Amino acid sequence: MTLRCAIVGSGNIGTDLMYKMLRSDMLELVALVGIDPESDGLARAKDNGIEAPHSGPQWVLDNAEDIDMVFDATSAYVHMRHHADYASAGITAIDLTPAARGPKVIPPVNLYEHLDAPNINMVTCGGQATTPMVYAIRRVIESLPYAEMVSTVASRSAGPGTRQNIDEFTKTTSTALREIGGATKSKAIIILNPAEPPILMRNTVFAGLPEGSDHQAVLDSVHEMVDEVARYVPGYRLKNPPVVENGPFFTPGGEVPHRAVVLLEVEGAGDYLPTYAGNLDIMTAAAMRVGEAIATAKSKVPA
Amino acid sequence: MTDSSVDYRLIDSTLRDGSHAISHQYDEDDVIAIVRGLSAAGVQVIEIAHGDGLGGSSFNYGFSKVDEKELIARACQEAGDSTIACLLLPGVGLADDLKDVKELGVGMARIATHCTEADISEQHIQMAKKLDMEAIGFLMMAHMNSPEGLVEQALLMQSYGADAIYIADSAGAMTTEDVQRRVSALVKALDIPLGVHAHNNLAMAVSNSIAAYEEGAANLDGTSAGLGAGAGNCPTEILAAVSNKYGIETGVDALKLMDVAEEVVRPIMPRQQVIDRAGLILGYAGVYGSFLLHAQKAAERYDVPQAEILMELGRRQVVGGQEDMIIDVALELARKHAEANE
User: Beta strands of A78-159 (E only): which ranges?
Assistant: First the structure.
């Protein structure tokens, strides 16, 4: 079945998501909702014949009868203020902010676990890029005492929401590395790089490997997972082959003899911002994947 | 920061920036000895944290030997009349970390961002002010932004409530003229005091600091014996001695600082702080100083020249915090060398 969707937030993420949704057979875009009538995103929505109100989340609540699903691309604070209203209006919320109200979903790891949840959190762009790698390593070793990710994005691709919520980004990402990736302890770091021309989004995963880990299995599992993510984010790839380095390393999860280092790059599809903004692409592609999976699941339920 | 008895306020960062040079291996005894020595010499502010700021202990930047918060607590106990400061990089540390260190007795928070990204510091500057700490906005790699660009960024931090602004020559890449142009533009534009944090890759740290003072800077940074990232920092004891020669009142005892450098800090330094080829290349190519030892490790691991790694990092315009790119560059160079040898 086709689900009627609204996107709230007409910044980088919301506008990028709009272009993806316009191509979808399963998700019908009803409106792109903003707060600034002058915003570029709203102008582009109108150009594409999409309704583009600027009355913010309230518009969605006022039109709840015509909306099945809302994609929230505002900020963590705004989402925290409205998530309960969406739920009581019967609208499923796909949360693209790091507010982390609902269960976190990383499609190649747990896509089908929370399809009936009223609120699904898409973690962060860095979380979407790195949690699959942490999970891929964890699944072939006995335990993963500590994992860490470093995400570097081009300054131009980080909008005001990201900038004002940088602590929420690192906290939510770090939590995902544990809860979904399977690490015992974790850390997340984000860096903004202003280089011109802008750099492609880079992500590095470090994983502490306990004694006795099968290094070849780790590397193979990483390669498999890269292919899995690249199925829905075509620009997702290894920048260099993954390596295992010798320690010892005294991590917060204890001493480990080795660490795996996975150096990733994400080239965007260029739907809204140019291709350097892989951080937008991986987020919106993951959110589309969740939205379409929900639509598919609903169409299987007998009416 | 209205101590009118001194011409500028000296902030010593041996226990923070110096931490890079010893791969974050400070222990409690080091902290006690250094804080006691600096405090006895009259240093007004002593900064302590992981080299990459609160929360910096990581694979990417190196794990601290002792939890920084234990060391900070100890520093606060030993501080005497000195104020203890912490550095925090948004994206690495959290505003919550400021709450923890405030409890321990820390009185100043320096919130550091790349020199074009001041708007990620709003949460953290506001948190520091809410906690009644002195808040300093700290713009790193200041050679990568123009005087006008720095003014724009500094005004943002001022608008968030910062009590002072610092520009950091994190790569030790600035000439005296570079410093003068930036400092004079900032001093004119800001309502709050300015500070300069210098590195010594081009052997300009002390002279650039004095030049900054002459252009109106009211805070200057040093580290004992120059211990610090890259080719090291502006040495506190030399800055104090040179200031005396100029008749600039610092309120610190230069001879006591020389004792600290000679008797406390030099004995724990794994290598003396010299400007060797790698250190000079950092300044020459404008690469973040703390990359030095990480690049050395990667060079050994992947058998590629350290200098080539540093030059490539400069070409890529990497910024502070991107230590993971060192491995990336080393792997690529190793591949290129292997292909060339086939």
Answer: 92-95, 119-121, 146-154
